[in-house]
Amino acid sequence: MLLALALLSPCPETLAEAVLELTHDNDLFSGTRIEDDLYTATVGIAYERSGWRLRLNERLFTDRAAGLRFDESFLTVSRELLQSPRESPRRWSLLAEAGVVHRGRGLFGQGTQNFIHEIVNEPEVRLPYVAGSSVHPTIALELSRTLPLGQGAQLRPLIAAESAGFKEAARVAVEFRQELPRGWWLVGELGSRQSKTEFAPLAVWMDGNAPTYLLGAGYREWISLIWSENAFGTEDRHLHLRLRFRL
Question: Residue 119 sits in a domain of what CATH number?
Fold first, then answer.
């Protein structure tokens, strides 16, 4: 659907501003009590144009000990609400995102996971999906402030909140970013996340408040690889790969 939007865009001048983004998260180093489980992977695709971002994202959740799995499939639209110039040395940012999330059997799910496992010579995962499915509204806000430190370095304090109907989270963090020669950059972040859910298969793995951190690097805006702790509220560790293409 997102590719069709790009290909059917009628204006070449506007099309030149469009960006396609592909993302993949994997818990190669989960660090949880049950390895290679919980939020094991995320697959995402996004289309950006004229300040709007349409995103299709799916998280795969497995719990071998309990013998169950479910997928969270998100379809959201987001936009930057503060229009201060990007070149401003002390820039405020307010990012808003809204959409729907389907919980149950997703678009990719077990078949995609086992396809990847076959490629990397890992055992198949065959678990029954939780009974029933549900659709929930989802909304997220992130307020941040960019503070330049000089020599290509900057701090970005942020506060974020999100609700997906069956779970909520709030996060405060401070991000450090260092620009390097030839378009390369490094990033690090330290913060705290408060997570809450009443969905029983997920509640046993959410401890409420826990620290978050990430380390990563990238080239311009087109590629990044980031390692994180507690990105989804279950205190597991993930590698996040993002690729962006100008259309």
Answer: 2.40.128.140
Residue 230 structure tokens: 């507690």
Helices (H), the chain: 2-7, 12-15, 109-119, 200-203
If you average pLDDT over every residue of the chain, what do you get? Answer: 88
- Full residue range of the structural domain in which residue 101 is found: 2-246
Burial code (b: 16+ CB inside 10 Å, e: under 16) for 203-241 equals: eebbeeeeebbbebebeeeeebebbbbbbbbbbbbbebe
> SS3 of 225, please?
strand
Choice between 119 and 215, residue whose per-residue pLDDT is larger: 215
If you ran DSSP here, which 8-state letter would residue 203 be given?
H
User: What is the number of structural domains in the chain?
Assistant: 1
CA dist 115 and 174 (Å) reads 37
pTM value?
A: 0.86
DSSP code, position 168: E
* CB distance 173 to 158 below 8 Å: yes
